[in-house]
Amino acid sequence: MAKKSDNDSVTIAKKLGIFLLTFYVVYYLMSVIMVGAFGVPWTELGKYPFLTEMDVFNPAGAGGALGTWLAMVITYLSTLALAFIVIKQTKRTWDYVATTTLIHFVICCLVNLAFPTNWIWWVTLLLAAILVSLASEFVIYYLIEMRDIEMDH
């Protein structure tokens, strides 16, 4: 259940800050693991591959592209647990996931100074955001909001 203070702007901003910071910590940790796992150069670390063509960035081709793709997918999957720990509200989970996805998109555009052109990146980003948003709502609803209420007599 939501507390009265959960709707305050300051509380929302703090939770969003924690959510975003943890999102990027997990993203770069996954990038480091994928760089080591696939033996690609360190220049691939945290690379935003949305400008590269399909034949260069193709997760089916293994190597750096697969590692980068997996880092993004695993990061979004971990946000399911992050939503459970940080947000704890069914009605707010999609807000946090959508805001994080939008901020991630803006950061990617600023870092690359370009607009994304790779359709794999778009499909992965949008599907991950939608699926994590829906899954986190169900998880929080069933594991937090539907708990038995104990009453003292």
From TrEMBL:
Question: Lineage of this protein's species?
Answer: Eukaryota, Viridiplantae, Chlorophyta, core chlorophytes, Chlorophyceae
Output this protein's name. Protein SYS1 homolog
Q: Enumerate the subcellular locations listed in this protein's record, separating them with semicolons.
A: Membrane
Q: Any keyword Transmembrane helix?
A: yes
What keyword terms does UniProt attach to this protein?
Membrane, Transmembrane, Transmembrane helix
Which Gene Ontology cellular component terms are annotated?
membrane
Q: Which organism is it from?
A: Chlamydomonas euryale
User: Which regions form coiled coils?
Assistant: none
Topology relative to the lipid bilayer, per the entry, is:
Multi-pass membrane protein
Q: What is its main location?
A: membrane
Report the superkingdom from the record. Eukaryota
Q: Where are the bilayer-spanning segments?
A: 21-42, 62-87, 94-113, 119-144
**Record-linked Pfam families:** SYS1
